[in-house]
């Protein structure tokens, strides 16, 4: 459960939001109070300065013992009022602990408070912190504020309402942020999940994968690169597949070629040997008949010698065509060597084979050979065997060969069984 990215994102956002709210809850009221007190001191001081200036105008006396007593009395008579920002016309507050030390224009204290004593002259540094008091543009003295400025109950409740409102606003803002973050997080997770699914599909071999690209951020960049990579992989795979198929087809063609006789286009002796082993084995196993005929063109040497080697080749090709026409599809016909041919006939004994083979012999004899060369006559002799022995067909081949010799001996252009 904790391993999922969505859970991790949600948890981290929750923790961040809670931490932010907690920090705000602790710090905001304190900061607000500090600001408020500073502001209040400022307001208080301005009010005080204004009161002093009023006093100066009323009494025309400043800096002596008498003025100190009068000022104290004057200030005590003023009403304390709650301190709130923006109440600029408010009368100055008289607080028990917040006081002003007053000096004449040379900095000699005539209204002492705190550690300051009557008649003491303030240092240049202290005077810098003090507020200059002027009347009609003339410097008449300094006022130095000090002490605590306690807040009234009204100020405190005002502060409480303000900090609560701020907290509620902040909490609402954080809730919106959290909601937005969750929505964005879930979008991010959605994209990453789509990428993961596509990658898994690719690893299974389904290379044609695409993911949706939205926006321009890093995830969109990743998605775009993924799509490009998937496209390239797909193309490469298609090229590889095509070239693999070409190689396979070429290999098959070469295999076929290696089993074919170039001149006649018939299967060659290698192919015959493969098929003969197989058919011979099956015939013995299923006690089926199998016949083998060996054919040899008569006096072929003479044809070559008299009509040229070229005519000899043409004769071989034509004999192949004639044989091919006569045999059945299940039969195996091959050029066995020079002017020798072999025919394997499944489910056929030598008597049945004799009929087919003699038909071939007659076709060869009857073909209009003069079309190739005038006075050319071609005949062929055959020997047939259907002898099945457990010797990989050796006996059958020997017997067919013996019958072929017999046919030659008996005057050629015949079939011996
Ligand atoms: N033109 C041509 N001649 C070939 C080819 N292969 C073998 N020969 C020739 O076929 C001839 C076979 O002659 P022989 O074995 O003496 O037999 P034959 O002349 O047919 O006599 P019999 O078989 O007794 O009738 C040889 O001269 C070979 O050179 C070939 O592909 N083309």
UniProtKB/TrEMBL annotation:
Residues 186-238 form the HAMP domain. The keyword Transmembrane helix applies. Keywords: Coiled coil, Membrane, Transmembrane, Transmembrane helix. SMART domains: GGDEF (SM00267), HAMP (SM00304). Residues 223-257 form a coiled coil. The keyword Isomerase does not apply. It is an enzyme of class 2 (transferase). The chain crosses the membrane at residues 12-32, 166-185. Residues 288-417 form the GGDEF domain. It catalyses: 2 GTP = 3',3'-c-di-GMP + 2 diphosphate. Its EC number is 2.7.7.65. NCBIfam families: GGDEF (TIGR00254). This is diguanylate cyclase.
């Amino acid at each position: 459960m904790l391993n999922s990215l969505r859970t991790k994102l949600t948890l981290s956002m929750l923790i961040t939001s809670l931490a932010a709210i907690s920090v705000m809850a602790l710090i905001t009221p304190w900061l607000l109070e500090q600001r408020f007190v500073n502001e209040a001191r400022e307001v208080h001081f301005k009010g005080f300065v204004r009161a002093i200036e009023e006093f100066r105008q009323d009494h025309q006396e400043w800096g002596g013992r008498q003025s100190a007593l009068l000022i104290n009395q004057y200030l005590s008579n003023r009403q304390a009022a709650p301190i709130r920002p923006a109440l600029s016309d408010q009368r100055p507050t008289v607080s028990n602990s917040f006081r002003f030390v007053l000096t004449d224009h040379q900095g000699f204290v005539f209204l002492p408070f705190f550690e300051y004593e009557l008649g003491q002259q303030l240092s240049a540094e202290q005077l810098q912190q003090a507020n200059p008091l002027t009347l009609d543009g003339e410097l008449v003295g300094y006022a130095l504020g000090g002490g605590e400025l306690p807040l009234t109950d009204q100020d405190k409740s005002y502060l409480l309402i303000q900090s609560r409102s701020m907290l509620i606003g902040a909490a609402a803002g954080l809730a919106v942020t959290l909601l937005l973050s969750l929505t964005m997080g879930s979008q991010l997770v959605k994209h990453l999940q789509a990428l993961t699914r596509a990658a898994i599909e690719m690893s299974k071999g389904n290379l044609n994968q695409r993911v949706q690209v939205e926006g321009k951020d890093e995830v969109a960049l990743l998605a775009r690169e993924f799509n490009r990579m998937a496209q390239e992989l797909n193309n490469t795979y298609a090229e590889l597949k095509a070239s693999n198929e070409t190689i396979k087809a070429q290999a098959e063609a070469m295999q076929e070629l290696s089993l074919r006789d170039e001149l006649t286009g018939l299967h060659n002796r290698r192919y015959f040997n493969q098929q003969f082993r197989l058919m011979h084995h099956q015939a013995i196993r299923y006690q089926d008949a199998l016949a083998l005929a060996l054919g040899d063109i008569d006096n072929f040497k003479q044809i070559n010698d008299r009509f040229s080697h070229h005519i000899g080749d043409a004769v071989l090709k034509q004999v192949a065509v004639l044989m091919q026409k006569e045999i059945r599809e299940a039969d195996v016909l091959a050029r066995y060597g020079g002017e020798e041919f072999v025919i394997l006939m499944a489910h056929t004994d030598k008597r049945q084979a004799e009929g087919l083979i003699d038909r071939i012999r007659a076709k060869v004899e009857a073909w209009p050979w003069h079309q190739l060369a005038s006075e050319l006559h071609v005949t062929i002799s055959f020997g047939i065997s259907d002898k099945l022995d457990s010797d990989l067909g050796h006996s059958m081949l020997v017997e067919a060969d013996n019958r072929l010799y017999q046919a030659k001996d008996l005057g050629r252009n015949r079939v011996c069984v």
